[in-house]
Specification:
Elements: H1 2-18, H2 29-42, H3 44-53, H4 64-96, H5 98-124
Helix pairs in contact: 1-5, 4-5
Length: about 120
């Protein structure tokens, strides 16, 4: 599984470095939202975070399900506010400076390639 994940990450990184101009393509807000929800929903780390951290904060007179739901909802709201702020600031900066946007995109691609290489070396070593 690690090798397959590393290969996919390598493929994404090479594609990002080769074609950095795709990052600035305008997409509909609905499509971006659905893609983000899909990616986040398929990421098992979020669920594992909740399973590992939230139970230690449960106690008192409320039902456990209500407490976990309230804690999870508050986490989602805070993340939404923070990520929206970061996305808005990034959009403003990167739209006004296309060269910076391409450099950031290429840097992200190089980071993906390096992480993929590290995973492969670790797995095969």
């Amino acid at each position: 599984m690690t090798v397959v994940g590393a290969a996919y990450l390598l493929w994404l990184g090479v594609g990002t470095v080769a074609k950095p101009g795709r990052a600035g393509v305008e997409r509909s807000a609905r499509r971006v939202l659905l893609k983000g929800v899909g990616i986040s929903g398929l990421n098992p780390k979020g669920l594992l975070l909740f399973l590992a951290l939230l139970p230690q904060f449960v106690g008192g007179s409320w039902p456990v399900a209500v407490q976990i739901g309230a804690l999870g909802l508050s986490h989602v709201v805070v993340c939404g506010v923070v990520y929206s702020g970061v996305a808005t600031a990034a959009r403003v900066v990167l739209r006004t400076r296309p060269a910076v946007a391409r450099a950031v995109t290429r840097g992200s691609g190089v980071a993906m390639i390096l992480i993929a290489a590290g995973l492969l070396v670790e797995r095969l070593h």
